[in-house]
Design brief:
Two copies of one chain form a homodimer. Chain A is built from eleven helices and 15 strands. By secondary structure, the first copy, chain A, is of the alpha/beta class. Chains A, B: It is an enzyme of class 3 (hydrolase).
């Protein structure tokens, strides 16, 4: 109360905090759903904030747990919303799944069963892997009767589970039987987000719900490659000459974005434009505290120009 | 080693143990999947064992977590397999869900959304409740695009989740939105079995997988009405003049059947004809120990006639 005014709440992004943040980092890592857009709708002020940060010489990187699209497809989505973002600036959990297999020398003669959408299939194929499942198994129905026998491919050596709007009992059984019966079969989750802003108006079940179902049926925990796992950061650091202590992770989820930032040594900024509301952040039960929080990335523009 | 022979393993059903068990109980509670049948195939020796126990004056009761059928439908299934079992002798998790709502004075003007199959719908309707969902929502597809808005019925006051071979993203979102947004909406699980012998040759994802998915999306735990919850036992005790200390629960799952028997004060007999194999029972990590175990209910016949 030095100036006679009450102190701002701890962590609230003020003009001073915004200037000090921008001075102390070289790169901003942005989550996408709930930060840049909701569904196909751009969040207000995003282009202005991106333009300002680029003008200040900051590197911008986009790190999303949403596995529905590949990096190429996300780059197109940015373009369709009027934003110029290259594939190299985008790190998706679908890409992370493919890179995890590559880094771990997944044998090329083995196949990958996918519970998920096109993004995962495209990244896996780009990385040279043969895939089964995905959207085309969305129409397969099970007839749970009498002596029905469920066939599966014994050359499946990994199951990748991500967000899947075509999720069904056929895929659940396919994933279960590969993980349980194919020796050494890997169980990889793109991420465990319980919900996400898949459309502009509403939240929807996230990849975490598909992962929970498969995990229950096999009584095993998956390897998680998306946020908050630090796996993606390794690629990011290989691609760019950056230090994590000079990065700021900007996201709308405490248990993925902010935790990812903290796990990897970044500064963290929570925006309230997505899944997390202020009461949740301030609730005594919340144990994940970002360095800073504000309503949306647009606030950076106003605060930095004060 | 009084007779010069090595002692049998602790808990193994011997002729002495079988006679002492039969003398000490008035009723046998049988799980069905993996004990009486696998899929639509009767397990060997079941008719003989049932006949013998009935001849010895024992009450037989069937307690199943499988919610796919109603009590009426199960009675028909027993008949089709050549076994005479009345509806009153059958306690299913679908019936338990309906009785839970009735006992808790669920308002008749409210509706129940069902993630599950016909058995749940039939029991709920018999108990006088109006239902939505079930198999007819199995064909509904989601188009996760742009400004799509998902409508739901705000008069849904309970969501019941059971085994559902028609599980899909539409039902996941319907359940999520009712539980999250309709004030006071109950979240009821028929059971949490991770797998079950839904066909004779293979295991399949159980109701626990659907429950895990919905539970993840709402970040809440359900009320469980099937085994191992003791809820079903209350009805059983009301229906029959029995004491739990003079009952034996016979089942193939440690974490549902045997735990249910133990939670309610019954004697417990594990059969190895279903989900549990001997190494799992004897593994140091297993914390649930039945009083007795044997290969299948057929063993009772041989052992009691020795």
């Amino acid at each position: 109360m030095a100036n006679g005014l009450p102190d701002p709440p701890r962590g609230l992004l003020t003009a001073d905090a915004a200037r000090s943040l921008v001075d102390s980092v070289d790169a901003f890592l942005f989550d996408c759903d709930g930060v840049i857009w909701k569904g196909d709708k751009l969040i207000e002020g995003v282009p202005e904030a991106m333009e300002l940060l680029r003008k200040l010489g900051k590197k911008l990187v986009f790190v999303t747990n949403n596995s529905r699209k590949s990096r190429r497809q996300y780059s197109k989505k940015f373009k369709s919303l009027g934003l110029e973002v290259t594939e190299e600036e985008i790190f998706t959990s679908s890409f992370a799944a493919a890179m995890f297999l590559k880094l771990n020398h997944f044998p090329p003669e083995k196949k990958v069963y996918v519970v998920g959408e096109d993004g995962i299939l495209e990244e896996l194929k780009l990385a040279g892997f043969e895939c089964l499942g995905g959207p085309e198994d969305g129409n397969k129905n099970i007839k749970l009767e009498a002596d029905f026998y469920f066939e599966h491919d014994i050359s499946v050596g990994a199951v990748v589970v991500g967000l899947d709007q075509y999720f069904n009992y056929y895929k659940m059984q396919y994933a279960r039987i590969c993980i349980s019966e194919n020796p050494g079969c890997l169980f990889i989750a793109t991420n465990r987000d319980p919900t996400g802003h898949m459309t502009s108006a509403q939240e929807w079940p996230g990849a975490g719900t598909m992962v929970a179902a498969v995990s229950c049926s096999v009584q095993k925990e998956p390897i998680v490659v998306g946020k908050p796992s630090s796996f993606l950061m390794d690629f990011l650091l290989k691609s760019f000459n950056l230090e994590t202590s000079r990065m700021c992770m900007v996201g709308d989820r405490l248990d993925t974005d902010i935790l990812f930032g903290q796990n990897t040594g970044c500064k963290t900024l929570l925006v309230l434009s997505g899944c997390t509301a202020l009461p949740e952040l301030l609730d005594a039960s919340n144990k994940i505290h970002p360095d800073l929080y504000t309503n949306s990335v647009y606030d950076l523009v106003g605060l930095l120009q004060k």
